[in-house]
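Chapter summary example.
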Amino acid sequence: MENAAVSEPSLIPVTLLTGFLGSGKTTILNHLLRVPAAETIAVVINEFGEIGLDHLLVERSSEDFVLLNSGCLCCTVRGDLITTLRDLFLRRVRGEISEFTRVIIETTGLADPAPILHTLITDPLIFARYRLDGVVTAVDAVNGATTLDRHHEAVKQAAVADRLLLTKGDLAAAGIVHGLRRRLASLNPGAIILEATGGRVDAAALFDLGFYNPATKTPDVQGWLRTEMYEAAEHDHAHHHGDHEHNDVPAGGDAVVDVNRHDDRIWAYCVTRDRPVQRGAFSVWLALLAAMRGDDLLRVKGIINVTDSPERPVVVHGVQHLLHPPVTLAAWPSNDRRTRIVFVTRDMPKEMIEGTLQVLAGGDAPSRELQ
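The structure predicted for these 371 residues follows.
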C-alpha cells in the first residue's frame, strides 16, 4: 500500500452532480451558479443544448467555453472527460480563463457515475491537480420510488452519494416523501438527505464533503465516513433483505411492494477492527476485492490503522475496480483509532467482506461496537 505524495487540500475540489432524468439537476445547478460566493466555479456538462443555462450566458469565450454572468465558466465534455479537465487546468494556468477554484460535473440522467469517479481517482494527471470532493445526487420525490424500482442507474446514483437532494417535495404527498426518505436512508445510511424546493439548497451543504476540511486543512474523517449512521441502519437493512417487506409509506401515501426491487441487492455497512492490520496484507486484500468483485464494489472509503505506523492512519477510497492511491494522515483525527471501512456493495454481504479480511489481512475478530 504505497502512499501518493499528494497534498489533498491544495487540489481543486470536484463535485459530481448526478441524478436520474427529470430529477431537477439543472434547476439545482442554476441556483448554485447564482449564489454569491468567494469562489469561481467551472461547470462541465455533456452538451450546452441539454441544460437550460441560456439566460446565464454572457459571451462565448471560445469554441468550448462559455462565460456566465456569475463569473463562472461552463464547458462541454468533448467525448473525453480527461481531456476536458486537463484542458481546463492548462487554460487556467495560462490565464486564458478565470482562476476557478471548484469544478461541478453534471452528468446525464442515464449516466452510471462509476466511470466518472474512476477518472477522478485514477488518472495520474487528473488526481495530481483535482480531488473528488463529493457526489451529490438529486432524487425526484414524485417519481423517485418508481425510478428506483425500474432503473439500475438510479439506484447506483443514490447508493454512492455523499448528499441526497429530494426535489419536488412540494408536489408529492407527505406519505410518499416520508417513504422515499426511509428507503434512501436504508439504501445509503451515510448520506445526509436534504430537500431542495425549486432547486434552492444551501451551497455550503453540498461542498467540502471530502475527508479534508479546506478551511482548517485538517482531516474530517468522521464527517466523511459518518460511521455512526450504520449502527441503526444495519438492522433495518438486514430486516428488509430477509423478508422483503418494503411497505414504508404511512397513511396518506400509496406503497407499491416489489420483491424484485433493484436496491434489495445493494448493501451499505461499516467494517471495523480494534487492532492494527498489516499494511501489505490489507493492500493485497483490498486489491483482490477490487479485481475479483469490482463490478459489485460500488464504493469503498475508510481510515486504516496499520501495524508499521500506528500513529499515522491511512485513508483509502475507491470505486469498483479502481482504488485511489492511499493517503497517510499526519495524525489520527480523534481518539478513535479503530480501522473503519464503509462499503457500498451489490450482492456482497458484510459477512463475506469480514471473512475475507480476517483470512487475508489478519488482525482481531470484527469489532461489534458499530453493529
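To summarize the output: The longest strand covers residues 130-140.
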